[in-house]
Amino acid sequence: MIKHIVMWKLREHAEGADKTVNAEKMLGLLENLEEIIPAVRNSEIGTNVPSPQTTHDIVLNLEFRTLADLEAYQQHPEHQKTAEFIKKVTVDRVAVDYIV
User: Fold this and answer.
1) Distance CA 32, CA 26 (A)
2) 73-96 per-position pLDDT tens digit
3) Virtual CA dihedral for 52, 55, 56, 62, nearest 10 degrees?
4) Is the CB of residue 56 less than 8 Å from the CB of residue 10?
5) Which domains does the chain have, with CATH numbers?
């Protein structure tokens, strides 16, 4: 199994909306990917509980059976469309992929 974990820090304002509105839109887009892209085996998506140590706002934790499934997910047109929006509303992204 392959785990794909990504965290993003959102801009305070982007695309005509504030951070809260963009976070909600981003969560909806990410949740939709599991339903649309068959390669996704399992997903967890959430927002960070605010604290003084908060460094990122949203986390995505996906599971895939194989590296080929992860690649299919990343190449899928709906993933690409979602990524375009995310790039516009975030200032930082960190990711890790690992085998379980």
Assistant:
1) 10
2) 999 999 999 999 999 999 999 999
3) -110
4) no
5) 2-99 (3.30.70.100)
